[in-house]
Every structure is written in structure tokens, then in C-alpha cells.
Amino acid sequence: MADQGLFRLDLSDRGLEKWSPRVYAYYFKHWNGFRMPFHRHDSTEVMYVISGSCRVEVQDGRAPADAVPAQIALKKNDFIVVGEGISHRLTVDSTCRMLNVEFGFVTGADGPSFIGELAASEGRLEALLRSDVPYLVLRDADEVYHSLKNLVLELDGQGGEIGGLSAILLAELLVWIARLKEEGAAGDPLAENRYVRQSLEYLRQNYDRGIQVKDVASSVNLHPGYLQRIFRSVTGSTLIETLTELRMDKAKMLLRQTNVPVTDIYDYVGIGSRQYFHALFKKHTGMTPMEYRESAGTERWNYTES
To answer: Structure pTM?
Structure first.
């Protein structure tokens, strides 16, 4: 068991030990010109910067007593994971909005206990849980924030008690942190892939709206020109080409599997003009939308109420 690691968790007997997650505190907080005294928790703390900037000082218990604390500057989308029992303090010179969660694990208790099994099958998660560093600083591309936010909202809805869904959300959070940690340890060679992955996810969630390159770039906090370059480098296609392919795939699915009127399909896939949609669809498939529907010959789901 590591006394100066992120977690005080014994992983040596995963087949017999029952590890149940516990969340001890969670909150959003907007800080203005604040200086916190040094303190420590009997839990692991995630401090995520939503906006603004701050500084976290950490005293590594393995360093000499007179050692200067580590000074970590954090800005939007940065977060720090501070290990159990590690002395630290927060300083905000101007303003900083944060989301904080303090959590840990207990053994032999009732409640969800699949973290150990998950660690056994997810090497990156096990490496995170075994980590002997006192703190971890990473930059997020939105996965961690969404997991944190969803966890906090679920806990709020359950009066702070951790149940099945909140345990799953905590596990999801740890897996995302473990993946970011692995990328960081490798010099972050996958940073571009991560931005591309986030961009693709944004396209999948918003293809039905009139989105532009600048919207995608804003979602991953990158300059549009830079995002376009790395996106094409990684995928071989531009953002617009990828969006168009996605829209055509969705249109074909709707034509094959639903009875949505052909004249309405363009609106379902985020294309503002019926005429432009028909021309684009024929360019990609060699058929008009009506010809494609007639050729599909598949059973369709009726989207209207009977």
C-alpha cells in the first residue's frame, strides 16, 4: 500500500477483496482572490478548472522537510489529482471556477464493488490505481469534465449516496484519467488523435444542425485552421467531407429503415436545402433519395403514432 500515492489501495488480493467506492465531497465553486491554507484529506481529490486560472501548491511528503512545495499553474480544462494524505493548498489571484470531487475506496463494505474487476481488465486503470506519485496534472479534451459533471449531478439527485450509476460514472472518470495519464507519460503523442476523436464525437452529436468548422474547433478549444490541419493529417479527409459522409450515412439509414417522407430527410440530417440535399445524395450514391428508398426493399420502422 503506497503512503504517498494517489490512492491508498491494496490491489494484491483482487479476487477476494471487495472494494466499494465512496465519494466524500463534491461541489462547484467560483473563487475570487482566494488563498487557502495547506491541508490534507483522507481521500483523493480531483480539482478541475472550468474557467479562469489558479495555482495549486503541493508538498511531497517524500521530499526534505524544507523543500519548496511544487507550484502548479492551472487554467481552463486543466485538472489536478491530489493523492490521499498529500498536503496542498489552492491560490486564486483573480477568478477561477472549479469542480471538485473527493473520493476513495473502502473494503469489505456493502455497495458496488466492480472497480477491482475493471482494473484487472483495463491495464491503464490498474496503473493509475497503483501509481505512487503524490499528484497528477493533466489537460482535458472534455471527457473528464463530462464524467465529473455527470457524477456530481447523479450524486446530487441521490442525496450524496453512491449507487450503481454513480459508481459506474466514477469508474468512467477513472478510466478517462488513466488514458490521459498514459498519453502524458508517452510525451502525449496521441494529443492530435484525441482532438480528432473529440471532433468526430461532436460531429456525430450535432450532424443534424447547421454546424461550421469554427463550431467544431470551439468545442475542442483549438484554432479552426490548426484543427483542420491535424484532422486531415489523421483522417485523410477534411471536417466538411467527414460531416457530409456522416450525413449521407444517416440519410441512407432513414431511407432504408423508416417511413420519414423523402421530402423531409434533408432536415433530419442538418442540410438546409432540399434541392442541395438531393444533389448531394445523388453525387454520393448515384441515386436520388427516392430511388434509393425503392431499391432498399427493407422493412421500415413507422415513426408516426398508430
So the answer is: 0.62
